[in-house]
Design a protein that fits this description.
The chain is α+β, with helices and mostly antiparallel strands. It has helices spanning 14-73, 76-96, 100-110, 140-153, 183-190; strands at residues 115-125, 128-137, 156-157, 163-167, 173-181. Strands 1, 2, 3, 4 and 5 form a five-stranded antiparallel beta sheet that branches. A hairpin with a 5-residue loop joins strand 4 (163-167) and strand 5.
Amino acid sequence: MIRTNLATRPFYNERAVHLGILALLLVVVLASIFNVTRVVQLSRSDTRLGSQASRDEASAAERRAQATRLRASVDPKQIDFVSVEARKANDLIDRRTFSWTELFNRFEMALPDEVRITAVRPKVDTSGTVLTIAVVARAVDDVSQFMDNLQKTGAFRAVGSRIEEHVNEQGQLEAVFDAQYLPLAGSKDQR
């Protein structure tokens, strides 16, 4: 007895082939559905982003036009006025931040034993702080030594640009002199 199939159709399991084709068809259909939904989602996203971009461009153009209008409305005289007022405010701040402690510490380092300070009057002008310093000493050399010591600190310039001297009833020399005070310059030198 021969058990081989001599028929013209050699496949006995047509169902397996049909199931394989059906599975392949199902995969193709699912992939197509996924692709279509992604295309729709991306198309909507693209439309939304395009409309948002056009709104942003319109807003940017409006802001540029507003900035141009504001620049045109600025008065140069007003800017100059505000600039002058700002300088005045900065000068007031500089006056307010004048440190008496720092000044007297510098005096203490520069003061010879034979000299006493009797008065200090600061005056702030365009060149900085000008101090009028009144001292009492035994001799002219003591006052000169004090003025030299102040000059050496680096915080004082033009020391002795104006000097007034006279002898009081006790026989001591009273001197008044000016010095330009630059506290920041001296603090850099001391570091």
